[in-house]
Write a structure and sequence with these properties.
Length: 495
């Protein structure tokens, strides 16, 4: 009974996957530029599909395909007019040992727009050959089992990575480290389900004792704890992928706009001596110590103003602060009357701005305009600057210290992808993992709260199957066309 049940489940899943994949794929040959658009030294045009060999013969006049994965310098002709287009490199990747798993050929030609256009025109003359849709090469690689969805998403993130930390995280995911983590978790759950099924079917008349059931439950509890730790990551991976939202906040005229101009080395915001100059949110993207940062200059915060436009700017600033990952709190050091009451001054300042205490752990305090402070006070501030940074946007003194503190805080917010375990980088992953955890906890609670003689394990194991299905939705073991369309639409044509 057990073997028949498992066989039925596995066969059903394989049949559904096969039907789905066959419905998504066709026998057409696709082509597209894989090296980016625009004038360049070399353009790589990729072709994948059953017509690849025919295209090689007609476009190069070679009687046989070249040695696989070895570049060959050859003349390249138009498939229909037979006119020579260019002289370039040809690489042949016979399936299944190719990126897509299909017969694939790459033409490395000069990157002029006329040459690329002629190549496109020539390839389009072949029967059942068309230009690739965005991400279609990678989609075919997925269908061929060359990568799962987490690796596909990692590849997309690798293409779009703008900072070193983003590159490291994306590379680990594209190389399958996150996939291995989820597949191992899924395999342990499948093993636990099989043990429970064996206990249900054979415990009464075969040599299957209660230890089998207890071991299975222990495996499930271990997965639950592992999932909790994985989910309790403070969204480091997603923050690294999307960028850390950092808001520069403070009272009017303390130097917020000067700070964003200093960090960006250009005039991002208007700087004047008039309080309330900044009215709207001014965002800029930066690479700080390898971490992506979305830095926002905000309107000066104060309790009231008669200016309607400034009031709207203050309201927007407060809304932005609520969603920010990091606050750069700017204080005018020249307004500090006495170092003896610095703590009281800061407490009153923060209260006047309306910044809640829960935001303070993610706040870097910057004492700006230190060039206007007398030497004795300045020296005291520097000697006691464990909680703040002394800075002069005018002379740039203290900038190096500020950048170092920002780096430390960014490492705390995003983690270090080079040494840490793979983290969740997509909201899609988090959603399915939370569902998986819910199903596992339902099974565990039922098992603990129900007396052994009252347990109906045959029914309650559907929670475990749902948990396995949730993990499958992350890796692509359980596929839906809607998920695939969203993921692959972010790719460019030649990928």
């Amino acid at each position: 009974m057990l073997c028949a049940r498992l066989y039925s489940v596995l066969f059903s899943k394989q049949l559904n996957n096969l039907v789905f994949r066959q419905s998504c794929r066709n026998n057409s040959t696709i082509f597209g530029i894989s090296s980016g658009f625009g004038k360049c030294g070399v353009a790589v045009i990729r072709v994948s599909g059953p017509a690849s060999q025919s295209i090689i013969h007609k476009k190069t006049r070679l009687k046989e395909c070249p040695e696989p994965r070895r570049a060959l310098l050859t003349k390249i002709f138009h498939g229909e007019t037979r006119a020579m287009i260019d002289r370039g490199l040809l690489l042949w990747f016979p399936g299944p040992n190719s990126f897509t798993g299909e017969d694939t050929v790459e033409f490395h030609v000069h990157g002029g727009s006329a040459i690329v256009s002629a190549m496109y025109d020539s390839l389009a003359t072949f029967a059942d050959t068309r230009i690739a849709e965005p991400g279609e090469f990678t989609k075919r690689a997925f269908f061929a089992g060359k990568m799962d969805l987490t690796e596909v998403e990692g590849l997309a993130d690798l293409i779009h990575a703008e900072t070193e930390a983003q590159r490291r995280q994306a590379l680990r995911q594209a190389n399958g480290q996150l996939s291995c983590f989820y597949n191992d978790m899924r395999a342990r759950l499948v093993n636990a389900i099989a043990s429970i099924e064996a206990y249900i079917d054979f415990s009464e008349d075969q040599d299957v004792d209660d230890d089998v059931l207890h071991v299975a439950v222990q495996k499930i509890e271990a997965v639950i704890e592992e999932l909790k730790v994985h989910l309790n990551d403070n969204r480091r991976g997603e923050r690294l992928r999307n960028g850390v939202r950092a808001a520069i906040v403070g009272a009017p005229n303390v130097g917020k706009s000067s700070l964003i101009n200093l960090l960006s080395q250009r005039n991002v915001s208007i700087v004047t001596s008039i309080a309330g100059t900044t009215r709207d949110i001014v965002e800029s993207h930066y690479d700080i110590a390898g971490y992506p940062v979305i830095l926002a200059d905000t309107a000066g915060l104060r309790s009231s103003t008669d200016d309607v436009v400034e009031s709207e700017g203050i309201a927007r600033a407060r809304t932005y602060v609520e969603c920010a990952d990091l606050l750069l709190l700017v204080v005018d050091a020249s307004r500090i009357e006495s170092v003896n009451r610095l703590d009281a001054f800061m407490e009153e300042y923060i209260q006047a701005l309306g910044i809640e205490q829960r935001m303070m752990p993610n706040t870097l305090t910057i004492l700006n305009k230190c060039d206007l402070v007398d030497n004795v006070t300045l020296q005291w501030l520097k000697n006691n600057s464990t909680q703040f940074t002394c800075l002069s946007c005018e002379s740039k003194e203290g900038l190096a210290e500020l950048m170092e503190r920002m780096k430390t805080r960014l490492e705390q917010l995003c983690g270090n992808p080079a040494v840490e375990s793979p983290t969740i980088s997509q909201e899609r992953h988090r959603f399915h993992l939370k569902q998986c955890l819910t199903y596992l906890e339902r099974f565990r609670d039922y098992f603990k709260e129900t007396a052994p003689q009252d347990r109906d394990l045959a029914i309650v194991t559907h929670h475990l199957r749902n948990a396995v299905r949730c993990i499958g939705k992350i890796t692509g073991t359980v596929e839906t066309e809607e998920i695939l369309d969203v993921i692959f639409s972010s790719f460019c044509i030649g990928k």
